[in-house]
Amino acid sequence: MEDLTRWLAALTTLVGLGLTLGLNPALYGATADVLAQNVRVVPRMAWMVAGLATGATVLYLALQSFDPTEFVTAAERNATTAVLDRRVDLAAGALFLAGAVAVAIWRLRVPVRPAHARTTKSRAHSWSYYVLGVSCSIIGFTTLPIMYMTGRVADGVSDHPALRWAAYAIFLVALAAPFVLLATAWLHFPATAARVNGYYVRAIDMDHRWLYAGVLGVAGIACVVLGLLPGR
């Protein structure tokens, strides 16, 4: 009974860690783009899930003898110091404002985008989603602690290597499950997929340059104000 309780607790933790690692805006943004285009959904999602599994497994093996806690803490401390530096705020504000001006000038000089720029289908190869999956499962402050915890939990399940890998397989299933379920559900509702694809095509065909300029301008002003704010 005690072993069963330990296994259930470990597997529940691994499922939670797998779902947490998959909570990446880039992954869900790419998934939304693939589903909205409704083009080569299965191979693209398969490549992305394979990339996620590959990157996670590489970290899982690499962190067997390395505790990344101190490294992550030091990196976060340096990042916090940089964020609190007024010069960083002012430099970022200047870059955002320069970008806003450049986009506005582009919009005024070229009021109508060339027809070849209005593409409705991504030219990205399916294997490029593998690269995305690998990078999202490796790069980031949260990926190292998550994979370190995954290794510790999987190792604590049993002394037998086969059982450890079986526990780690549960983590991989939880990591891939949301994307597989989204793709499967999408393929089973072709009418909805076609409707969303139509909205997507119209949205892509719209000229968003004034919106981009506005967002960049607001971000630039916010950074400049934050950099000049007294008492910070």
Architecture overview:
Keywords: Membrane, Transmembrane, Transmembrane helix. The chain crosses the membrane at residues 6-24, 45-63, 90-108, 129-148, 168-189, 210-229. The chain is mostly helical and 232 residues long. The protein has one domain. Helices cover 79% and strands 0% of the residues. The protein contains 10 helices and no strands. Helix 3 (41-62) packs parallel to helix 6 (128-138) and helix 3 (41-62) crosses helix 7 (143-157). The mean pLDDT is 82.
Most strands sheet: none
Chain oligomer state: single chain
- Poorly predicted sequence stretches spanning 5 or more consecutive residues: none
> Into which percent range does the helicity of residues fall?
over 70%
Number of domains: 1
- Percent in strands: under 5%
Give the topology string: H per helix, E per strand: HHHHHHHHHH
Determine Rg (CA atoms, Å).
Answer: 23 Å
Overall pLDDT, averaged? 82
CA-CA gap between termini: 56 Å
Q: What structural class should be given to the helix and strand makeup? A: mainly alpha
Shape: flat
Number of helical segments? 10
Number of E-type strands:
0
